[in-house]
Amino acid sequence: SLYVSEYFSQSAQRLSFYSWYGNAKLFHFHVPEDTVLLRWLLQASRGRGPECTNMEVTVHFRYGAPPVINPLGTRFPANATVRPSYNISMTLSSAVQNNTFVNVTTPAAGDWFIAAHLPEAAGRIEVKGFSTPCTYMFQPDMFVLRLVDMPVLEPGVAMTQTIVSPAKPLHVKVFVPKYTATMWFELRSCVARGQKACAVRVVLGSITLPQSFQKILTCSGNVNCNLGLDSPPWEKWLQIMVENLGTANADVSVEMVASFTACKPGSTSSFLNFSSLNQSQTGPRPGDPGAAGSQALPAGEASRNASDQHGFCLQSQPVVREDLDVVSVRYRLLNGPSVPVYSIFPTLLFLGLNTGMDSGGSLVVNLLLNKTSLSLANATVLACVSAASPVLSPNATRNCSTAFFQGYPLSVSTSSTEAMLIVLYPETSDWFLSMQLICPKGQGECNKAEAKVTVLAYLTPCFNDCGLYGQCSLLRRHGYLYAGCSCKAGWSGWSCTDDTKAQSVSAQNLATLLLTLSNLMFLPAIMVAVYRYCLVEASVYTYTMFFSTFYHACDQPGVAVLCIMDYDTLQYCDFLGSVVSIWVTILCMARVKKILKYVLFLLGTLFIAMSLQLDRRGVWNMMGPCLFALVIMIAAWVYHGVKRRHCYPSSWKRWVFYLLPGITLAFIAISVYAFMETNENYYYTHSIWHVLVASSVAFLLPPREKHKKPWAWSQKLTCRYQICQNDREELYAVT
């Protein structure tokens, strides 16, 4: 045998603390056919700075679709199928890097996914630039060992192969055709050193994570070994591995054979399906002589006509797949949404999810039983949703299991007429919905009975669009797209349906009122600025108060939301007004000449607008203008002090009752903003920030100049006559 090794790698990604699925870093690999060994090299590393501490990295694996994980222990939506993912933990302690190997023998060919993340996020809101977070990196590499020209086991043809040594097992494969009901595998003989008695182990199927359904057959002695597989995966290669259990390093010759039992489908004719598809798209033309004759038969009549055929064991209903958008598919039944279901054979619907881009959403199957169509009150319609191959005997298995897949059961009856199933991240494969009528007193009771079930099946990025308190986000890893829900207002869970820590409506209203009405504390600062002839500063404060109020009214996570314009515009105007307010306040305190002050106002505002466009949340967008304005203010104060030969400002009352309280309020506000805000206390800590900053502005604004009088409206706006004095001087000519 000739083995070929191949190596696949992807670029490293920076890990994040987990709060929702978007924080998990996803890696997508494709395992080629005839792979007999898969080895993952997982490399996790962290920075060397003092801010880096011991950390645990969790890595999840899944075949066919991204892993469904739940690190926070939240609730999934009702009727959702949840199977725990296979995961391992990697600890980063004293070592800067951790390398871990994971081996998988006889892996299934196709898409494999790895998701890695750090523990739960602390929820603290960090200002960008105040602290340097530690960097944790993760990179997986994949090594595969592939067998070239793997022997093919032909159906019904015995094949003899040799096992060279116990360390080198034998690998063969067999192709499972469509509509296979049962596969029989038989090991007829086993010869070692001329003796027909030997011990071997046969492993059928490949490993898939998180669950593996390999079938193991141990054969010893000269007795024939055989194994039957119900509903093997259709139109796929099935890998078979034979291991020598003996200790002697001798050749072992084995003879094996595989056979299949077909399950022929019975359905309406191709002409009727084509006519139904044509009419559903264009509709029959009135007056067309062939319109009446080309209409599809009703579902019940078509099924009865199909039952006249001989040798079939299932009833197939034609289904059309309609691609609506990214990770959005609708399945439409050509014979109408109502499907006839019988007891003598299952009704089968094909749901194709094999494009490679369908595994990033949620498959939703909804069944609704028509009560009037079912004459037997105690009868039940049992349905199974499975991948790779359908469940051909729902009444016998009851647990919806096939040869290598555990399906998902559904049932409807007269007492419970509706059932729903949500498959989160369905694996890339051909999916099937099989339904059969079950009677409690035996199948003979309902041989002539018929039940009509309305089937609604579709693929959606996020179930129920993440609800009222969630946002469906489309995520991307290279060319692969998948969706996840980002929850708000304390809601959590896969589809934001877990209300364990949810905020009540009254709490949401309170948060909105606090964050918006706290901006009214700018009114005293505006009035002080107007009283002291600082009209430009008062205009900036008014601008800041307006946009901060409506930005926080639009930024709320719950139902108490009001957006007067685009969210991004409101956010930009709020950030711009906040930084410019600090800029003009400090320059006003500097007491520079008016022409210079207004030039600095304009230039600083333009520079701040540019820096906010580059990085809106950077700390230096606020600290840079503040520090530059403080330098100008200190230089101006030193100049005034040297010129007047005493401290500036000269009044001790100005320092004690205005400057020191204003500076104290400003420092407390910065401390609250930078170090105390979290996701839980944001609505009242940020409101405190609003109050403290607005109050500090009112204290820090300088008094008006002495030669200017306060606003005297009675003198400025008068309606009486005044005696005007003519100050013109007459010039006399000297002659």
UniProtKB/TrEMBL annotation:
Keywords, alphabetical: Cell membrane, Membrane, Transmembrane, Transmembrane helix
Record localization: Cell membrane
Region spans: Disordered: 278-303
Transmembrane spans: 510-531, 595-614, 620-639, 655-676, 682-701
UniProt membrane topology term: Multi-pass membrane protein
InterPro entries: EGF (IPR000742), NGX6/PGAP6/MYMK (IPR021910)
Keyword Amino-acid biosynthesis listed: no
Family: Belongs to the TMEM8 family.
PANTHER family attached to this UniProt entry: FIVE-SPAN TRANSMEMBRANE PROTEIN M83, POST-GPI ATTACHMENT TO PROTEINS FACTOR 6
This protein's name: TMM8A factor
Native source species: Eudromia elegans (Elegant crested-tinamou)
